[in-house]
């Protein structure tokens, strides 16, 4: 081919520069490369060889002017000097019949090639292949043609790099999505296990704080509430409950801003003659009595939400009435005693019986709260009731005991 005039060269260069480099299809990208190399420059043979890492050789990928079946791989470590020169320098190499290092493995069948170009296709990191173009006519490739074919090879290399980046990114995104799905499944399983553990922990906590027989709080739970004063003291009460960071309030000579007296009442309950119930009617009957007491306290509407009722031990029960004076606590206690006395129980041998209770009441006014002392006062009042006839309520006030019968209380 004769030297290209400037207009033709610019026209070809423009078409080459318009070669798409963002194709996501290697076959299409290779097809465009070979088509333009053949059509624009009038080549008789155009072959694209790409590196095959598995065989460590350059494999014919697409061709024009010769069938792929006639072409053979070019081993990377056995390249002819002319091809090695192109790879080492990363520049186009011209082959003519004067060269003695013709590459017989390039074409499986003899072709009368009089001029050929080897255009290395190399990224910054690696050699990806080479483009082979040849002519049968006895005319060399002009420098302008060599320049254009080099630009065409560079455009293909850019497109190839973009495609590889996309593939790697696509694989990475696919792996990330797969990992995200795996983590989503694991998180779902973990959430289920956490929910199950949380539910079991809640059940265990309830069980650890609940008396199995009566379903009331057990002794430990009662003192847990008492030790955490926020459960039994009003939110607006000055003192320990409002001290910063849960600490004690600093001493002060100033009078309290809220002069209202705040009472807490303790009621200690003991079933009368409970040993006789067990001895005469059986322990199952005794258990039934205790269960019934639990149901009365839980289900009969006697207690408020902030009242605390629990089994203190054996047949003894403790009720705590926050923000309640002893006289205000008297009515629910009287009603409890009347409801208990109204119950009919059946023991062994179908013998029916009734039970009553002795109750001691004691209150204290904040801020002079002494829990142990107040419970002891209620307990002493309960024993006073048992020693003075049972089936009664005894109020402890200022070292005095006041007896109250339950017979006249309406249910």
Q: Would you mind describing this structure in some detail?
A:
- The chain is of the alpha+beta class and 411 residues long.
- The protein folds into 2 domains: 6-169, 2-Layer Sandwich (Beta-Lactamase); 219-405, Alpha-Beta Plaits, CATH 3.30.70.270.
- It has 9 helices and 14 strands.
- A 6-stranded antiparallel β-sheet has the order 3-2-1-6-5-4, sandwiched between helices.
- The protein is rod-shaped and about 135 Å long.
- Mean pLDDT is 82; it is low at 237-259.
Structural descriptors:
6-stranded antiparallel β-sheet; Alpha-Beta Plaits; 2 domains; 6-stranded mixed β-sheet; alpha+beta; Beta-Lactamase
Give the uncertain stretches in residue-range form: 237-259
Main sheet properties = 6 strands, antiparallel
Number of helices: 9
- Order of adjacent strands in the largest pleated sheet: 3-2-1-6-5-4
Mean pLDDT: 82
The CATH homologous superfamily of the largest domain is called Reverse transcriptase/Diguanylate cyclase domain
Summarize the structure.
This protein has 411 residues and is an alpha+beta fold. It has helices at residues 6-17, 26-41, 81-89, 143-209, 219-227, 274-281, 283-299, 326-342, 371-387; strands spanning 45-52, 57-64, 74-75, 93-95, 115-122, 127-135, 262-271, 308-313, 316-322, 345-346, 352-353, 357-366, 392-397, 400-405. The chain has nine helices and 14 strands.
């Amino acid at each position: 081919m004769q030297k290209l005039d400037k207009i033709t060269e610019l026209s070809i260069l423009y078409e080459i520069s318009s070669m798409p480099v963002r194709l996501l299809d290697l076959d299409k990208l290779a097809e465009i490369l070979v088509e333009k190399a053949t059509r624009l420059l009038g080549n008789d043979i155009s072959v694209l060889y790409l590196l095959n890492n598995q065989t460590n050789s350059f494999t014919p990928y697409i061709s024009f002017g010769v069938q792929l079946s006639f072409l053979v791989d070019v081993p990377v470590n056995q390249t002819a000097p002319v091809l090695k020169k192109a790879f080492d320098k990363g520049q186009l190499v011209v082959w003519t019949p004067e060269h003695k290092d013709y590459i017989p493995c390039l074409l499986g069948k003899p072709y009368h090639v009089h001029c050929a170009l080897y255009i290395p296709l190399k990224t910054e990191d690696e050699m990806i292949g080479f483009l082979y173009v040849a002519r049968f006519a006895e005319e060399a490739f002009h420098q302008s043609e060599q320049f254009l074919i080099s630009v065409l090879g560079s455009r293909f290399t850019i497109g190839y790099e973009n495609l590889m980046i996309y593939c790697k990114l696509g694989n990475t995104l696919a792996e990330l999505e797969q990992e995200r799905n795996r983590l989503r499944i694991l998180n779902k399983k973990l959430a289920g296990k956490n929910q199950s553990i949380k539910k079991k922990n809640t059940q265990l906590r309830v069980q650890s704080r609940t008396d199995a027989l009566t379903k009331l709080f057990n002794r430990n739970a009662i003192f847990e509430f008492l030790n955490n004063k926020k459960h039994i003291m009003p939110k607006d009460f000055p003192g320990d409950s409002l001290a910063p960071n849960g600490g004690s309030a600093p001493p002060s000579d100033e009078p309290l801003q809220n002069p209202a007296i705040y009472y807490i009442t303790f009621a200690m309950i003991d079933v009368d003659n409970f040993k006789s119930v067990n001895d005469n009617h059986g322990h199952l009957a005794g258990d039934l009595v205790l269960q019934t007491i639990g149901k009365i306290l839980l289900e009969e509407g006697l207690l408020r939400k902030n009242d605390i009722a629990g089994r203190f031990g054996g047949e003894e029960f403790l009720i705590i009435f926050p923000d309640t004076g002893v006289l205000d606590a008297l009515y629910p206690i009287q009603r409890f005693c009347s409801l208990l006395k109204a119950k009919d129980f059946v023991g062994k041998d179908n013998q029916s019986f009734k039970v009553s209770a002795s109750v001691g009441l004691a209150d204290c006014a904040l801020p002079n709260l002494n829990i142990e002392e107040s419970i002891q006062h209620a307990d002493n009042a309960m024993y006073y009731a048992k020693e003075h006839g049972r089936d009664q309520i005894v109020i402890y006030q200022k070292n005095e005991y006041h007896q109250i019968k339950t017979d006249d209380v309406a249910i």
